[in-house]
Structure formats: structure tokens, C-alpha cells
Amino acid sequence: MSHPLGPDYIRAIAPYQGGKPIAEVAREFGLDEAKIVKLASNENPLGMPESARKAMAGVADGGRYPDGNGFELKAALTEKYGVPAEWITLGNGSNDILELAARAFVQTGQSVVYAEYSFAVYPLATQAVGARALVVRAKDYGHDLDAMLAAIEDDTRLIFIANPNNPTGTFIPGEQVEAFLKKVPAHIVVVLDEAYTEFLSAEQQYDSIAWVAKYPNLLVSRSMSKVYGLAGLRIGYGIAQAGITDLLNRIRQPFNVNAFAQAAAIAALRDTDFVARSATLNAAGYRQFTTAFDEMGLQYVPSSGNFVLVKVGEDAGAGARVNLALLKQGIIVRPVGNYGLPQWIRISIGLEQENTLCIAALKKALV
Ligand SMILES: *Cc1c(COP(=O)(O)O)cnc(C)c1O
């Protein structure tokens, strides 16, 4: 299938498997699109904030190139976080930031450290530059930071940490992350991927942006796809000192973030009501799912994100089987066999009614 002239390390890549689109499931299973519930991609079930919709509609002309430097959006981020614009990199989704980090800091043959059961883009970004992955065994489905430190080799140039982690939802307290940063050699860049940080409880929250001033090798990555509801627009950002940011800026596409996404992001960042409402809805939905799992006697990993990983059987076919049984009922979740978790599925937390339908379908799928 893959062209023989492609480098071996590119041909070895397993393509990213996303959540199935609603239209595809409707076609494959002969279902009505309107009745399908998609809880597969950790999107915000409220959709885009109204403020962002309005801002997007106000973009004068899609026939003009966007501001390639994202002046106004960076100004909004500067206002929010108190960091200089020279510390901000905008990305076409935070996925872009993760890839830019690998391309900017890792040469072919060098190594990258990340955890087992962590985000699927880390192996992709690593392999795309022909680097070696040092995958560190998870501890209780989350990152084992001591083992990650011990895994560092002479040629390690990058470490990916997801906090909270996807697909497991595990969380590392801020003090532990900072203790880790203190011990990582200065020539290794640490990408702290915080796509779900806005869902953290008040007790869990920590100030990673303040760490950027202390650690010249830290790159904090944030997404607008999850709590901010802009997944379809593709927008995220990285915050790091000017030295890192300068390199990312040299290799990014000149117009990597489109005009509609920039306008929508400015509005969404300021829409604190929407963020609060989304986090509250998520907390209620999480209780709804975990209460049902407890009643059903299902094991789950306590999650700090907007999704939950639940074990649906003991055999290696369980996740795929239950996933199919749910698809037939019009419920799209995420099988996670590709993460090495074939007995589990990951369910994104939806609206109350969507969660109810998912729980009912899961009960049927498990009999
Ligand atoms: C969803 C996700 C991202 C990337 O999201 P974008 O849509 O590209 O911003 C990054 N990291 C983790 C852990 C995620 O779950």
C-alpha cells in the first residue's frame, strides 16, 4: 500500500484513528443522522460559544489571507496570561504545536520520551521526524514521572507530558510536575500538553504559565478544541520563552491559523461564562456516568478531563465488540485498542440526554 520510496520510518507509521464521523456511521449502519450521539472526540457538547459564532461571522473577507502573526489573538492571550507576545505560538489545533516541537528540537535518530497510554499524536510526531520513541510504562494508567526521568538517554531531546492525560483522564498534581521540571536536564524540551486544563477542579488547578518564566526548556500547549468548543476550526497555542517560540515560528506554515479561527478564539477566550457553564455541565455528566458504572459494576479510571475510560470486558475483544454494539445503536464512542487498551472504551461526556442514551445502550451492549 505505501509507496516504496517513502522512508522506512514514515512507512512504519500507523495513521491516526479519529472518532467516526456521524455521517459515516449513519451510512454504514443505515441510521438517521439526527438520532446519532457522538461521544467519541472529547468535543464540547454545547458546540461553539455564541460569542465565537458572532465573531466568526464578523470576519470581513475569507478571500484575504489571515494575519500570519495573529496580532490580535496574541494580544488577547497576553491580556489573559500576562506573557509577552514573543512567548506565544499559534497552532492549527494544539496538534500543530506538538508537531512543531518535534520538528524543531529532534533530529532523525534522536529520542523522545512519553508515557504508555498517552496521547496518540506523540508517537506520530516522533515517528514523522524519524526519532526513536522511549515509551515509559504507565503507573495506574497515568504518567510515572520518576520512570520517565530514568528513561532519558544521552540523545533525548523532547519529553511529552499530557496533564490531564488522554485517553485515560489521569492527573498529576502541579507540585509533582514542577518537581519533574526541576530535574529534567536543560537541553531537553518538555512539552506540557494541557488540552483539558480548564476542566480541572479548583483544588487541582496549578499555574504552569508562571513556570514558563522559570524553565527555558518548558513549552506549555493549550487547545481551543475542548472546553472552548472550537474543534472544527482548529486552533491551539503554545507558550514558551522566546528562544523556543522563535524556532517554532521559523518552521510553522506562514498562515497556519485561519482568519475565522483567530476571530472565534479571541471571543471564546473572553467568554468566561461559557467556560464555566461547560465545566459545570461536564462535572454533572461525569457523575452521571460514574454513578451508572458503579451500579453496573464496571471499572473506570477516575478522570480529570471531559471523558472517561471504562473497562467493558476481560477479553482482548471486549472493547471492539462493545464499540460495534454501541455503533449499531447509534452511539459513537472511542475504542482504544490502538492505545494498548483493548478491554476498554473511552466515552466523551455529553449533554445529560446523550449520556442517558449512551448508558442505556451500554447496558444493552453488555448483556
Ligand atoms: C485533543 C487533544 C489535543 C489536540 O487537540 P487540538 O484539537 O489539536 O487542539 C492535544 N493533546 C491532547 C492530550 C488531546 O486530548
TrEMBL record:
InterPro entries: Aminotransferase_I/II_large, HisP_aminotrans, HistidinolP_aminotransfase, NHTrfase_class1_PyrdxlP-BS, PyrdxlP-dep_Trfase, PyrdxlP-dep_Trfase_major, PyrdxlP-dep_Trfase_small. Pfam families: Aminotran_1_2. Residues 35-355 form the Aminotransferase class I/classII large domain. Keywords: Amino-acid biosynthesis, Aminotransferase, Histidine biosynthesis, Pyridoxal phosphate, Transferase. It is an enzyme of class 2 (transferase). Its EC number is 2.6.1.9. GO terms for biological process: L-histidine biosynthetic process. Belongs to the class-II pyridoxal-phosphate-dependent aminotransferase family. Histidinol-phosphate aminotransferase subfamily. Homodimer. This is Histidinol-phosphate aminotransferase. It comes from Oxalicibacterium faecigallinarum. The lineage of its organism: Bacteria, Pseudomonadati, Pseudomonadota, Betaproteobacteria, Burkholderiales.
